[in-house]
Amino acid sequence: MEKIMSLHAAPVKTKKLLLVNSSWLFGDKILRMVIGLTISIMMARILGPEQLGKWNYAESFFGMFMVFTTMGLDSVVVRDLVRNRTAEMELMGTAIALKLAGTLVAITGSCLSNLWLRPGDSFVITINVIISTASLFQIFDVIDYWFRSMMLSKYTVISKNIAFIVSSGLKITLLLLRVPLIYVALCTYVEFLIGSIMLIIFYNQQNQSLLQWKVNLRKAQELLSNCWPIILSSSAIMVQARIDQVIIGQILGDEAVGQYSVALRLIEVLGFIPVVIATAFAPVVTRSKMKGEAEYKNILGTIYKLMFIVFLLTAVPIFLLSNRIVILLYGSQFAPAGALLALFAIRLFFTNFSVGKSLFITNENMFKYTLLTSIIGAASNIGLNFLLIPMMGTRGSLVATIISFTISIFMVDLFFTRARENVKNMMYSILTFWKINPKNLKEGDYYAQD
């Protein structure tokens, strides 16, 4: 409680908060990257390309509906908690009610759609049902919003990691025992349930109580009025990110999905870096916006520079060593994934800047605008996938993704004044990425008394 009171009552140096918060988030993602990649390699070697393709097809299918499990609430609720602590009980109670409703929509939509496209594939249908219904245990992730707003992400990290380690240990044991994969999928229930219980325990230790949460219909309407563009735009983004595996599976078959998913998995383990940066900086960006446009622009510029540096440090080695990496980790049966991994490395540039740009969108309240860009991106991606996959195979899907990201993240913004200024900031940051000024983070005491 003393720590929370200090956050309310006295200024806290942003640099120190960022360092501590980012360290916990970074450590969390490193652990998940190592263990998750280990499980991925084991599954690939045991299942082979075709069976692995079926598993990832089922996961990708639910991935397109996952936006409804968050309802676009995370960034908005964290922002509102930072701005107004007096309304946090109504915010938390209303958020969990909306998450529950959205999760039920996601489960229903995913299962019915999968039954329609794969009516005779019992394995894919069963895995999809297990993964989707397990998401019900994640509704208590709203507690993470509170911890993030307080820059106390270590409690979320500890909770999630305990759950992840237990679940991963079970998965590895079951894989080694060669049990049916249905039981491996059921470990998802274990992970999400333990994670939720731990979050509740840590939340209570901060002298907070779920029993104080209140569902407010007016607050729900207010959140939905802010979030509905995020829901639709995030749906479009998830479709843009996941539809490729579904289309590949329908056109080229499950083995092609297996090769593609191996390359995707290796890239996804690096995707945590921009997310950690954005998550740690989110409250800082909000505070800088409240202090003035010059400081706000400088902070965003610093984030964009970090995103480009991360791209260079990760993409270049992967591009040069892609074939060796795939064969070393997954074996020669997945050698075709090497060429795909090289193209995925290029896609990291757009992924990083999409994450960085989300901070600008949230603080400018441009959710309706990002809805437009997301729909354009998703539509172009789907059209290009159907055009290029028959011509180029799985590589065509990556080319389609790169083109669609270029359109949605950069090109559309050139036609709108407010977004155009942000594109200029991104371009300038790329061209001067080595000029990161630490004073941008040292000079402000962003956590002044509320």
Protein model, in words:
- Helix content is 82%, strand content 0%.
- It has 18 helices and no strands.
- It is globular, with a radius of gyration of 22 Å.
- Helix 10 packs parallel to helix 15.
- It starts with a helix and ends in an 8-residue tail after the last helix.
- With 450 residues, the protein is an all-alpha fold.
- It has helices at 2-9, 14-63, 67-70, 73-83, 88-117, 122-134, 142-149, 154-176, 181-205, 217-251, 254-268, 272-291, 293-330, 337-364, 367-392, 394-411, 417-431, 439-442.
- Mean pLDDT is 82; it is low at 1-12 and 442-450.
- Number of DSSP strand runs: 0
Rg result:
22 Å
Overall residue-averaged pLDDT value: 82
Global structural class: mainly alpha
- Main sheet properties: none
* H-E order: HHHHHHHHHHHHHHHHHH
Roughly how many Å apart are the termini? 17 Å
- Binned strand content: under 5%
Q: What percent of the residues sit in helical stretches (DSSP H or I)?
A: over 70%
Detail the poorly predicted runs.
1-12, 442-450
* Number of DSSP helical runs: 18
The geometry reads as globular
Oligomeric grouping of the chains: single chain
